[in-house]
Design a protein that fits this description.
The structure holds 2 protein chains of 2 kinds. Chain A is of the alpha+beta class. Chain A contains 19 helices and 13 strands. A 6-stranded antiparallel β-sheet of chain A has the order 3-2-1-6-5-4, sandwiched between helices. Chain A has a 5-stranded mixed β-sheet with strand order 8-10-11-13-12. In chain A, helix 1 packs antiparallel against helix 2, helix 4 packs antiparallel against helix 5 and helix 14 packs across helix 16. In chain A, about 35% of the residues are buried. By secondary structure, chain B is α/β, with parallel strands linked by helices. Chain B has a single domain, classed as 3-Layer(aba) Sandwich (Rossmann fold), CATH 3.40.50. Chain B is built from 4 helices and 5 strands. The chains are: A alpha+beta, B alpha/beta. At the A-B interface, helix 11 and helix 12 of A face helix 1 of B.
Chain lengths: ~625, ~130
């Protein structure tokens, strides 16, 4: 068996991608949260301004409108700065750290604004204290739990600071006129209760929000990971399917092997893939197809199927993963693998119906590259590939056998042809009297002998034709546009005399309007087909009968009908008509000699020209052969 | 008129007989050779007017080689005297084999081909035509 040479497919290792690594899920979330927070803060700033006006104008409470308006405007102003900064970062595709700094700045300024707001709206008496809770939630979303807790502690510190400073009179207390009856900020009990509850709420909220957020983040990461692996699985399935289709679309062994290695390497996204098949002795593993390996690596040395431990294990039916090829004791050529840049290997068995065929192997430049998923995948490819390889091998064997058979027939017939033709010449020389006078009886015997030898000659020629038809692929290339009508006219003319002698009507009916009917064939071949069919019609039609040849176009095809009013073909003979050496019993009765190859040759030639042949017959009524060929547009040539 | 000399080069004795009988009875003098080498030697000996040559002898194209040697355009060729001696070539090549030959002045210096099986009438007609008789 001719194995393909593993040349010309070698490629280098893949170049590192110049694209920046994509943001992680956490980073991506930070970036989008910052935008969201800036968006919210416009409302917060506007809210402070609106609330300050409402409290004074509608509820008639005495608040320090000036400082509160300043805080509201301050929030809007620093938010504008953050807004611009965020846009600049996005535009420059800044690293995640820049976003993290921006987030810390925002939270810090928000904390400051909150503290001022609380101070200006009544310190520990201010209902705005509650707003700190959602700030803590926001911080928990932005930062890891520890940072979130630190910010919560800071909030507690700030609120307690204001409360204590006001309590001890170190800082002026802002009283909202008409809001509270009593001066709660001086009430120790209230102060203590308020601070304790605020502190514990802050810490609990920070803890809860962080852990809920953390859990959500984990889930989200899992989902992302899951969808990634689903994506990988889909890609692989598609690749497997594509591979199977391309591999299955040919029966040519070399093509099957080459397509298999290429589609496997591509589907797994690895550097290289190879197939080694066992040679006839079953001792050696020969590389027969390769994708992505250097010539030097391929020629590293023989791989022995018996002594190589890896080969033995794989050929026994196991898919073997080698995570660290250059240091594995299973590898026969570790140094060569290192030089080739191969770090891990996955080998799957190619196993035929009866015996192991070889090994399908994937090579990766990364150590420990192959996952259990890959093991299953390569095993599946190998199983599917084994079938394709075995089919291609079987097909190759059949083709070789068919070729050998044809060769044999050719050889035998050539050997037969020479003595038969000399015998014919000898008989003719004798009959012609060149070796002395021949009596009438001798002449008769010589004529009989000549006829038998002539038949033998015809049989040999037919056999040669048949064998040549099977082996000569070139016959197809030799096809040219041929005019059907011209061929039919020529052949019909040849039989005019013999038809006349038998008192038969032989007619050629050309139902062709204008253009000639041109088909792809050879003149010799077409003549041979029609010669056989018309000669049969004339031979097997009794005197006084009719033979009609019709040529007409139909749906892009040319149909040639050869009809006779002859002896017909018995039903039992119909199925065997085109078989080699078959002759219908009623035909034998009429004509003793006949090779039984005529219709076989006709069918062979018609098929080679891409045509069809059909037969209809009623015993004692007549037979109709219809030959159809695809029409060719002569302008295409 | 002198009898014309015809040299038959064929390794098959039966084939030689088939050629010889009709030609002798038509009044030609026949000499025979059973191989290309012997044929070349006999050419110098008998100086034939016509050579009948089988294509397939020791090898599938031995006859062609002999024809090429004989009709070599080389002025120093040892067979230069026979450059104009006509050759009839016998072929058993079937019409379906890829090897098909036609007489070609440049490539094959052969006057005509006769396909086996040889008929006495066909042979005599070709020989007379080439020797310019009738």
């Amino acid at each position: 068996m001719g194995f393909p040479s593993p040349h010309g497919n070698a490629i280098g290792p893949p170049k590192p991608s110049p694209v920046k690594p994509a943001r992680t899920l956490v980073e991506a979330e930070l970036v989008s949260s910052i935008a969201w927070l800036i968006h919210l803060r416009w409302f917060a700033g506007a809210g402070v301004l609106l609330a300050t006006w409402l409290v004074g104008a509608v509820f008639n409470l005495g608040v320090p409108a000036g400082p509160l308006f300043t805080i509201g405007s301050g929030i809007l102003i620093y938010n504008l700065v953050f807004y611009l900064a965020e846009r600049r970062l996005t535009h420059a595709s800044a690293p995640a750290e820049a976003y993290d700094r921006l987030a810390k700045w925002q939270v810090s300024l928000d904390w400051l604004a909150m503290t001022l707001l609380i101070h200006c709206s009544g310190g520990i008496e201010s209902p705005a204290i509650l707003f700190f809770i959602f700030h803590i939630v926001i911080a928990s979303i932005f930062f890891p739990p520890r940072t979130a807790l630190a910010f919560a502690a800071l909030a507690i510190g700030l609120v307690s600071g204001i409360a204590l400073l006001e309590f001890y009179g170190l800082m002026p207390h802002v009283t909202i006129v008409g809001y509270l009856e009593t001066r709660l900020y001086l009430n120790r009990l209230y102060l203590a209760a308020m601070l304790i509850f605020f502190a514990s709420t802050s810490l609990i909220v920070a803890y809860l929000a962080s852990s809920i957020h953390e859990r959500l983040r984990q889930r989200e990461e899992e989902i992302v990971e899951l969808s990634k692996s689903l994506q990988r699985a889909t890609t692989r399935l598609q690749a497997l399917n594509n591979g199977a289709r391309t591999v299955g679309s040919t029966l040519e062994l070399n093509q099957v092997l080459n397509r298999l290695v290429k589609s496997t390497a591509e589907a797994m996204g690895v550097r290289a893939c190879s197939i080694r098949l066992l040679d006839k002795s079953g001792q050696r593993l020969e590389p027969v197809a390769v994708f992505g390996l250097s010539q030097a690596y391929l020629e590293k040395g023989p791989v022995d199927a018996v002594s190589n431990p890896l080969a033995r294990e794989v050929l026994a039916g196991k898919t073997v993963n080698i995570p660290d090829a250059p240091n594995s004791p299973l590898i026969q050529y570790p140094e060569e693998a290192r030089q080739e840049g191969i770090r891990s290997m996955l080998s799957a068995p190619l196993i035929g119906k009866d015996q192991p065929l070889g090994i399908l192997r994937a090579y990766a430049v990364e150590p420990d590259r192959f996952t259990p998923e890959d093991v299953g995948f390569l095993s599946a490819i190998a199983a599917q590939g084994s079938i394709a390889i075995e089919n291609a091998m079987a097909y190759q064997t059949i083709e070789q056998l068919d070729e050998a058979k044809s060769q044999f027939i050719r050889m035998v017939t050539h050997e037969l042809r020479s003595p038969v033709s000399v015998t014919q010449s000898l008989l003719r020389t004798l009959a012609a009297g060149y070796a002395g006078t021949v009596t009438e009886q001798q002449q008769d015997i010589l004529n009989r002998a000549t006829r038998r030898v002539e038949f033998l000659q015809k049989l040999i020629d037919d056999l040669l034709d048949l064998a040549a038809g099977k082996t000569e692929v070139k016959a197809l290339e030799a096809r040219e546009p041929v005019d059907l009508a011209a061929s039919l006219e020529r052949v019909v003319k040849r039989f005019e005399l013999s038809a006349q002698e038998k008192a038969l009507t032989l007619a050629f009916d050309k139902e062709v309007a204008g253009d000639s009917l041109v088909v792809m064939a050879t003149m010799e071949g077409l003549d041979r087909v029609f010669d056989n069919l018309i000669s049969n019609a004339v031979k097997y039609t009794r005197p006084g009968g009719r033979v009609k040849v019709t040529l007409k176009p139909m749906d892009g095809e040319a149909n040639v009908m050869i009809e006779d009013t002859g002896i017909g073909i018995p039903d039992e003979a119909m199925g065997h008509l085109f078989e080699e050496f078959y002759r219908a019993p009623n035909a034998k009765a009429i004509e003793h000699e006949g090779t039984g190859l005529g219709l076989t040759i006709v069918k062979d030639i018609v098929t080679r020209f891409g045509g069809r042949i059909a037969v209809q017959s009623t015993p004692d009524v007549g037979t109709k052969f219809t030959v159809s060929f695809q029409l060719t547009n002569p302008e295409e040539f | 008129m002198d009898k014309k000399q015809i040299l038959i080069v064929d390794d098959d004795p039966d084939q030689r007989l088939v050629l010889r009988l009709p030609l002798e009875s038509a009044g030609y003098t026949i000499s025979e050779a059973t191989s290309s080498a012997q044929g070349l030697a006999r050419v110098k000996e008998v100086k034939p007017d016509l050579i009948i040559l089988d294509v397939m002898m020791d090898t599938a194209t031995a006859g062609f080689q002999l024809a090429l040697d004989l009709h070599s355009p080389d002025p120093e060729s040892e067979y230069k005297d026979f450059r104009r001696t006509p050759i009839i070539m016998l072929t058993a090549i079937h019409s379906t084999t890829p090897l098909r030959f036609t007489p070609d002045e440049d490539y094959l210096p052969v006057q005509t081909f006769i396909e086996k099986p040889v008929t006495p009438e066909g042979l005599l007609a070709k020989v007379r035509e080439i020797l310019g008789e009738k």
